[in-house]
Amino acid sequence: MVNNEQRRRQLAREKFERQQKRREAARRKARRRNVVIASGLAVVLAAGVAAYASTSLTDDSGKSNKSGKDEAVDQAAPTGAPKAADPCKAKPAPGSPATATWKKEPDMSVDTSAAYAMKLDTTCGGIGIKLDAKNAPHTVNSFKFLADKGFFDHTKCHRLTTSNIYVLQCGDPKGTGSGGPGYTLPDENLKSPSLKGDVYPAGTVAMANTGQPHTGGSQFFLVYQDSKLPPQYTPFGTIDAEGMKVLKKIAAAGESSGQGDGAPNATVVIDKATVTSS
Q1: What pTM did the predictor assign?
Q2: CATH code matching the domain that covers 4-77+100-277, chosen among 3.40.1380.10, 3.40.190.10, 2.40.100.10, 2.40.10.10
Q3: Exposed/middle/buried for 139, CB within 10 Å: 0-12, 13-18, 19+?
Q4: Which end of the chain has fewer beta carbons closer than 10 Å to its terminal beta carbon, N or C?
């Protein structure tokens, strides 16, 4: 006998799966369109932009698009959608997102016995994250590499979900869900004891992907409320108390579509991302 809670979770999973399929179709269409444009204009396009996104939690970057929001999903608010007040008053620091990409994952250089931390200085406040190099070494190694290159600086957190799944998605230099570093990462830590009952608990930081194994790139999501998700997204960090306050402030402002999944009403820009070890 299926109770109401089980039915609700089933419906949430089915919605999640439908979103992933739509995004994958959008990515394929975008890739075909890009090929036509490239040949018609004789433009040489750089290959290998990783794809990623999240509520599905895909990263629309895909491998030439996005990989987490890795699908080119239109995040624009529909005409007439209510616009909440922006709680983030700081102006973004001068500068533009990075455009560099790389053909392969950086060489491993992290010390899995060391303590690593990531700090996101944003227009909404600082978000501190304890990184799990022991259980997600490839992911932490990549984030240190990208942070050292300034890859995350001046990037928008482009997606907020406020229904069924409760996350803020960041890490796309394009700010559309279609950007990435040019390479993909292996899935890690999917059997973490923290993911009890297929729930990503509040405070978790995990990788977005295309919905397929080993397709994470640079897009990641910050969980501000326990979220029921299949264990397919590498958990690699936990947010500190002050960071959770910032994240909940962003979530409280809502998203622009009015449908529970769209661009955050808060103007969330990562001015600077740093990864340090001790």
Answers
A1: 0.75
A2: 2.40.100.10
A3: buried
A4: N
